[in-house]
Every structure is written in C-alpha cells, then in structure tokens.
Amino acid sequence: MAVVDVSYDATKRELTTDKGVLRYHEAGSPDAPPLILLHGSGPGVNGWRNYRGNLGFFAQTHRALVLEFPGFGVSDAVEGHPVMTAGSSVIRFMDALGIESAPIIGNSMGGVVGVNLAIKKPERVAKLVTIGGVGPNIFSPTPTEGLRLLQEFTDAPDRDKLVRWLNSMVYDRSLVTEELIEERWAAATNPDAQQTAAMMYGSKAFEMQQQFMAASDAPPYWAMMHKVSCPTLLTWGRDDRVSPPDMAMVPMRLIPDAQLHIFPRCGHWVMIEAKQAFESTVAAFLAD
C-alpha cells in the first residue's frame, strides 16, 4: 500500500462558500468513500490538532475530511452560537463537495453536532461515531471538573490555567508536553477563538445558558436522540474528567442502533490517548 502524505501542508484545503471560506484537511483517494471528522472545543482546539494522528489511518480506506468549524481561528467566523453554526457549516461543506451522505466522527462538541445532524437531517449521516461529550450528566456534577477548569481559563486566560485544563483532558499527563502547551497557548489567544470560548464556556455565558434552559419549553437535544436512525458507535474514556462516562447511559439507551465502547486508562481525547484501539474499533464499525 502506498504511503500517504498526511503532513499539514500536503492535506490543507479550502472552500469558498456563501458564508465565507471553510478550511479543511483531506487525505486518501478522492474515489474512496468519504469520512467526515468533526473536532471538539476548548482553548487552541481545531480539527488538525484533534485528528492529525489519525488522518493517515483513515486515509487508507476513506477520503478522510477534517473540517475546521467557523469561529476557532481557521475557517472564517460567522455570526451565531458556535455549536449552532457548526451544524450548518457541515451541510455547506458537504454540499460544496457534492457529498450526499457520509459517516461522521465527532469529538465532544463535534459529536453533539453529529447527533443533531443525525436527528434533523438523517439522510446526510450514514453512520455516527462520537468521542465522549454526548448526553446529560447522570451522576457526575455539572459543570464537571474539566469544564470548571475550562471556565476559569476562559474568564481570565493565563498559561498555568491552560496547563491545569490540559491535564484534566488526559489520563496520562506525559501527553501534556511543553510543545503542546505552547501550541495551544498561541492558538487560544486568537481573537476568533477567544470570542468563541467566551460564548461557550465563560461563566456569564454558562449562567445565561442555565437561565435559558430553565425558561425554555424546547426539549434538550439529548431528549431527541431516539430519532437518530443511523448505526452509532459511542466511544468513551473511562477516566474522562470533562464528560464522565455516566453521560453515555442516556445515548446508549435512547439511540436505537447504538453500541458503546469504553477505553481504560483514557481521558477525554480517546482518539489520541487510545489511538490504536480507537482506530481499530472504529474501522471495524465502519466496515460492518
């Protein structure tokens, strides 16, 4: 099998749409079935940093496409709440590339986006893989330890707070290298990324969200997960301190065709910390 070049420069692409430029990374044969990977949120996050270690693996069997959501410092920002605009950006992305339907892998926020798409536009999502973050807290407090640390960083960013948050993301703290810290610190100071973080995780935004939920008659997205009709693989780190695995109980029960795989000695970044086990599990699910 030929070696695929999955370096940053070799895989970066961009699309001009009616709502600005969407940037993404692509690897694999253009004739292979598409696979869309959606990133999570947090300081300095983007699609490349979430999936750069997995791109080569999935490119062996798929046209692997890592979309950069608007508002995280890579694709052009758009007005609106980042989670809401992320879903529409996926549809714009698929339409621009002529992709009618594809399996989706979503990390944390990306998983929530994938679930919402599977509920509202089921014809576009062939299969769904989520990585933590989907569903409500059952036994764990809200916000969780990892989200409180993220909130503290968002309200008053500094390097030490970033390190504390990064340590909460993993089981093995040796993964939080000086290179990772510096990379995330530089990206987290991007104006678009800071504005997005404030809208999602600032203490004021959290209070407003709680007030809105209390006053709203609309059901939360997770209460509609019985409408997810595609085969779904829920993956979770057993030691996730951002979205603890008790959250998996609701999607596991409500999504009709769902299976759950929990990885030991693993935190929130399953695709990084349990890389080989995650890849083989997802590959088997996609091939089934």
TrEMBL record:
It holds the Pfam family Abhydrolase_1. InterPro entries: AB_hydrolase_1, AB_hydrolase_fold, Epox_hydrolase-like. Keywords: Hydrolase. GO terms for molecular function: hydrolase activity. It comes from the Bacteria. Residues 33-274 form the AB hydrolase-1 domain. PANTHER family: ALPHA/BETA-HYDROLASES SUPERFAMILY PROTEIN, LIPASE-RELATED. This is Putative hydrolase, alpha/beta fold protein.
